Amino acid sequence: MHNRHDGEPLGRLLLIDGDDKHAPLVAETLVQSLGEGVRITVAAGGKQAAELLRDASFDIILADLSCLGDLSERSDDAVARLVRLSDGALFVAVSDGASVSAAVGAMRAGAHDYVVKPVNGPAMAGRIGELAQRHGKSRALSIAPRVERRSDFAGFIGASSAMQFVYEQIGRIAASSAPVFITGESGTGKDVCAEALHATGPRFGKRLVAINCAAIPRDLMESELFGVARGAFTGAHDDRKGAAELADGGTLFLDEIGEMDLSLQSKLLRFLQTGTLSRVGESGVRQVDVRVICATNRNPMQLISEKRFREDLFYRLHVLPIHLPPLRQRPTDVMVLARHFLARYAAEEHKHFSGFAPDVAGLLTSAEWPGNVRQLQNLVRRLVVMCDGGEITMPMLLAADIESRGVATPAEPVARGERRQAILPMWQQEQRIIEDAIASFGGNVSLAAAALEISPSTIYRKRQGWSEMAAAG
Ligand SMILES: Nc1ncnc2c1ncn2[C@@H]1O[C@H](COP(=O)(O)OP(=O)(O)OP(=O)(O)O)[C@@H](O)[C@H]1O
């Protein structure tokens, strides 16, 4: 937060909001969150905003898409015109949430992001800081409240911007009881995330009970989740609580939710709707208060389209989405994590390591890491066990890397006839890029398409093609 500022403002924000009662309130919450160094000018519509932009320079523009009609009938056209006049300001579109296509249109027209109404001051201030950093908008960044860059948070290690965003999201939603839906490839830290949400929230005094929907046989899953009454089936000698009851007052973590049987999905939906459950073989109902966190490394939209996941259950669970980015998208975290694991395993093994040789660090940083943090962690552990100590050199890495799916691919593998990283066919690489984009927009195909600068119908067409390719083997 900035100190009170008497002279020139630190920055200028243009708020385009057609509601003359609402706009001053929004402006006030923004000043409270951004600090008094920001000067806010309100424009009642697109035309007035365009005039203001011709006369003065602004650092941030917040534009309610519903009030730009006086500038152009189409909101994307109005946004494009304002962006052209904006002199490189950070441009955030505000939409009413009903029209995803308007928000996508605004982003195609040059907006940096969109937020759904109502504009919340503290959340908006955080978002401005994040966007300003991501888009290199130094003027907007100077207004945003300083956020300490953290290199660790509640069990996570990592100082990249992507992880700062994750920490900020966890901090913002930990106190709520609404369901959280965590997505991310295997090994990106979905369990760590569930633990962080529980540990930093008000339910910390009660239990976090985790249940892995892929690891438990189908016919046992219902009793594991909801408990069992004595005599319900052969072998049920006693009444037993399930994970949901054990987590009462605390958090229930449903890992690999995408693997849950469809009939149990209906029962889970009922539990989420009513807050009550019945143990297997019991006719009465029991009230249970849990916060549900679920996670999957699959694409939930694909599971829904394949009819393996109920859409109504997805929307019940997908209230607060968190996406954990793959390690290859945050290369600055690799050595932070590698050094952390080296220190930890060296202490466990009573050995002394001085660090990684520069060529090893370079190779690790640029590797693909298909198994993400888990793969890096296992590799460092293997290095510590196999080596006596000192500096981790390239020969040591190559010796330890044998089972790690080719992280340490040498620079000229073909010439030297050594191992080569598997090259995926073009369609699979394209599929990965598109699925990553969809996951990072919480499953929203339209927004992913806008970010990739292709049309949503292209994504749907490609998906059809991938299923056919996969079916063809
Ligand atoms: N950012 C991180 N900082 C420190 N450790 C991490 C981080 N991310 C993951 N890990 C570690 O990597 C391993 C895998 O993490 P985790 O089990 O949370 O991944 P996951 O996404 O749930 O994987 P899966 O989908 O296979 O269950 C764990 O040992 C975890 O402690």
From TrEMBL:
SUPFAM superfamilies, A to Z: CheY-like, Homeodomain-like, P-loop containing nucleoside triphosphate hydrolases
Gene3D superfamilies: 1.10.8.60, 3.40.50.2300, Homeodomain-like, P-loop containing nucleotide triphosphate hydrolases
Domain Response regulatory: start-end pairs: 12-132
Coiled-coil annotated spans: none
Keyword flag Calcium: no
Keyword presence, Lyase: no
Residues in Sigma-54 factor interaction domain copies: 156-385
PANTHER family found in the cross-reference section: PTS-DEPENDENT DIHYDROXYACETONE KINASE OPERON REGULATORY PROTEIN-RELATED (PTHR32071:SF117), TRANSCRIPTIONAL REGULATORY PROTEIN (PTHR32071)
Record protein name field: Sigma-54-dependent Fis family transcriptional regulator
Protein source organism: Devosia oryziradicis
